[in-house]
Design goal:
single chain; 327 residues; alpha/beta; Rossmann fold; two-stranded antiparallel sheet; 9 helices; 11 strands
Length: 327
């Protein structure tokens, strides 16, 4: 499989932070490759990693290995184009933090597209070295989730363009009528908000993200899957634990109520999962850090990732890619 990085500008959409410039997004794309390459894709560019401002001590990601080749030609699909999955990362996460899921989907015949939400998530370092820092104060969450949903729309516009451009390596290789939107944490909220409003969402998945804006009131218009952590916590103070339990119950109830309004919506609680088990952190952290990480649950490191990948493929494939290899 191949992986490429793009710097995409939506000239028709002003940046929400600075209306004098167009919205600009750094985007990772994983895709079935025509052949093996000579250079493995780096897990994270060193220039980005230096300025990522992680909220928790991270392992040495320069040593993390991928299964992707950098910038090799995309393979030609047998017919109809590759289905596309847009993968929205959460706050404090890089698009590369979901490489395990992205590479698994790619190995099954998907093109996976992961944007970084400029100014409104982790610090973004563009390939030319420009740094887009996080805003000091975020807008209200109902407004912010719409910005992230609009980022999904900007990505789709670019995908339409490269699929129609005969000069593009992806010319006529994408099936945008088979479009999945997957997100984790606030990226999951953005996936839900997008799939509430847009008919282009063939199927969506929210991994442990709350829902905001229209989603709690309107429900999902497309087949949708909510994957939730199990509600366990690392808090030791009894009062804090009770408050967390109340918050978790309210969260689950809100998601279930939104799902109940939809024709094809499912809620699955992943036992042993906490918030970071939906990312590569479960594999990248080793003892003793993996034992003390407050957002990693009791599920075994690789077992959790395997369960996550299988659940997602089993949900997406009948709707987007019925000929894909099954787990």
């Amino acid at each position: 499989m191949g992986r490429a990085e793009f710097d995409w500008r939506d000239d028709a959409r002003p940046d929400p932070l600075d209306s004098s410039v167009p919205r600009e997004l750094d985007v990772l794309v994983w895709y079935p490759a025509q052949h093996r390459g000579t250079t493995p894709a780096a897990y994270v560019r060193a220039s980005w990693l230096l300025d990522a401002n992680r909220p928790f001590p991270m392992p040495h990601l320069q040593r993390a290995k991928t299964h992707s080749w950098a910038d090799v030609p995309p393979a030609t699909p047998q017919s109809g184009g590759w289905p596309v999955a847009i993968l929205c990362s959460g706050f404090g996460a890089l698009p590369a933090d979901y490489s395990s899921l992205a590479e698994d989907l790619t190995s099954r015949g998907y093109v996976v597209v992961a944007p970084a939400n400029t100014h409104y998530g982790l610090t973004v370092v563009f390939p030319d070295g420009r740094i887009a820092n996080e805003v000091a104060e975020l807008p209200p969450l109902d407004e912010l989730v719409q910005i992230w949903a609009d980022d999904i729309r900007s990505v789709i516009k670019q995908l339409v363009q490269i699929n129609a451009d005969s000069r593009s390596a992806f010319y006529h290789k994408l099936s945008l009528r088979r479009l999945g939107v997957i997100g984790h944490s606030f990226g999951g909220a953005a996936a839900a908000q997008f799939c509430v409003a847009e008919a282009s969402c063939t199927a969506g998945i929210d991994m442990d993200g709350a829902i905001y804006a229209d989603a709690p009131k309107r429900g999902m218009r497309a087949p949708f899957l909510f994957l939730l952590s199990d509600g366990t916590t690392s808090f030791r103070n009894s009062k804090t634990r009770r408050q967390w339990a109340d918050t978790y119950r309210e969260y689950v109830a809100t998601v279930q109520a939104a799902c109940a309004m939809s024709a094809e919506c499912h809620v699955v609680i992943e036992q042993g999962f906490r918030h970071a088990n939906f990312t590569d952190s479960a594999a990248l952290f080793r003892p003793p850090l993996v034992w003390v990480h407050p957002s990693l649950g009791s599920v075994k490191r690789y077992d959790g990732l395997a369960t996550l990948r299988q659940t997602i493929v089993e949900f997406l494939s009948p709707r987007l890619n019925p000929t894909a290899a099954q787990p």
